[in-house]
Design goal:
204 residues; alpha+beta; four-stranded antiparallel sheet; elongated
């Protein structure tokens, strides 16, 4: 494979907990689709943990992990958001948000103590949630005349294409998806048959 066409993301949501010297760190992990999800989940947790002194978080979005953000929410710089982000990165996750709230226990933990606490709380939340592998896929439509049906369906079967929609009349259409890493091979096979027309639709 010349490039990576798979990625990992969490399924649903979970909680985690870490305690140190009276301070309590409660972590929430969520599957997210976009930054609106991030805002909504933050509001949700702030309503639940209304008395918490800090609501720190980190998230990664998109299959290529192109959007990465974190917030220390008043904690010393890089002692909260960055360790949370580190857990997402070390687990190779995307489309995932972790929020960690802190209840101060009266004893300062120091920079090292804070980093350790936020990291461990985030780690505990990830231990309590399912993680699944997803694949980047491309969607195509192949147009053909009815006599080409057997040839087209042979390719569908041989390459295990995921059929999304089909219309079999005199003029036929078949919409399908295929893993991005196998797309070039599929296009090459269909290109050998000049009686079919293949049109790219989108990447999902």
């Amino acid at each position: 494979m010349l490039f990576e066409d798979s990625y990992l993301e969490v399924v649903g949501s979970s909680q985690g907990l870490f305690k140190d010297k009276g301070s309590k760190f409660i972590a929430y992990s969520f599957h997210i689709k976009d930054e609106d999800d991030v805002k909504n989940r933050l509001l949700e947790v702030k309503k639940i943990e209304i008395r918490a002194r800090h609501h720190c978080y980190a998230y990664i979005l998109n299959p290529d992990k192109s959007a990465q953000r974190y917030s220390d929410d008043g904690e010393p710089s890089n002692t909260a958001g960055k360790p949370i982000l580190g857990q997402l990165l070390s687990n190779d996750l995307t489309n995932t948000l972790i929020i960690v709230v802190r209840y101060f226990g009266g004893v300062k933990l120091g920079v090292v103590g804070l980093i350790n606490a936020y990291r461990n709380a985030a780690q505990d939340a990830l231990l309590n949630i399912a993680i699944e592998k997803r694949f980047i896929k491309e969607v195509f439509v192949v147009y053909f005349q009815y006599p080409e049906m057997n040839n087209v369906m042979r390719v569908v079967k041989d390459l295990k294409l995921d059929v999304i929609q089909q219309k079999f009349e005199i003029e036929c259409e078949l919409t399908f998806s295929i893993r991005k890493s196998q797309s070039e091979k599929m296009q090459g096979i269909f290109a050998l048959n000049h009686k079919v027309k293949l049109v790219y639709q989108k990447t999902i």
